[in-house]
Specification:
- It is a single chain.
- By secondary structure, the protein is an alpha/beta fold.
- The protein has helices spanning 32-39, 76-87, 104-107, 160-168, 179-182, and strands at residues 11-13, 18-20, 45-47, 59-62, 65-70, 92-97, 108-110, 115-118, 132-135, 147-149, 152-156, 172-176.
- The chain has a single domain, classed as L-arginine/glycine Amidinotransferase, Chain A.
- It is built from five helices and twelve strands.
- β5 (65-70), α2 (76-87) and β6 form a beta-alpha-beta unit.
């Protein structure tokens, strides 16, 4: 399973439940069971079922809302199933059209304090009108894929202008070399499932 390093696509972990995805790429569906076994030690497990498809890279959580990208890998059936699962825990699901990239989180990420780092060429800004928008640098279209661990934002090291914008806005940023993984359109969030135990 050569894509298994992109573990984010297998699950969405909320405070109350872990929802196992059904990836849009059929070759990735074998990854689900092993991740579910690990997550079952920490959360009750729910599953997105056939025929719906949903990749975790299309799910951006901001507080009690899950913004879900309608992409090449995530369809309406997967979004509907996720909505049915998480609404019982008090979450809202908002579908977001995605163009020009593989997943929603390639186009935007929540960077805390009411702000979204965004590439407005790939996702409509009006979907995030309640937030401060921090645009990625024009020469760094893939810079929006980041994630937070505590108060620290983690992103790829080859986006210096976008990093500077984030630091100027008062955010603490750590970078790492992701150049090999970026060949598969990966960013920092792709290799992570971050949650509190």
């Amino acid at each position: 399973m050569p894509d298994a390093v992109f573990v984010e696509d297998t699950a969405v972990v909320l405070d109350e439940v872990a929802v196992m995805m059904r990836p849009g790429a059929s070759a990735r569906r074998l990854e689900i069971d092993s991740v579910a076994r690990v997550l079952a030690d920490h959360r009750p497990i729910e599953h997105v079922r056939a025929p719906g498809t949903l990749d975790g890279g299309d799910v951006l959580r901001i507080e009690r809302t899950l913004y879900v990208g309608r992409s090449e890998r995530t369809d309406e059936g997967g979004i509907t199933q996720l909505r049915e699962i998480v609404e019982q825990y008090g979450y809202r699901v908002a579908a977001v059209p995605v163009t020009g990239c593989l997943h929603l989180k390639s186009a935007c990420s929540y960077v805390g304090s009411g702000a979204v780092l965004i590439n407005q060429s790939w996702v409509p800004a009006e979907q995030f009108s309640d937030f401060e928008l921090i645009d990625v640098a024009r020469a760094e279209p893939r810079a929006a894929n980041s994630f937070s661990v505590g108060e620290t934002l983690v992103m790829a090291s080859n986006f210096p202008e976008t990093r500077a914008r984030l630091e100027q806005s008062g955010r603490r940023v750590r970078t790492t070399d992701l150049s090999e993984l970026q060949k598969a359109e990966a960013g920092g969030s792709c290799m992570s499932i971050v949650f509190e135990t």
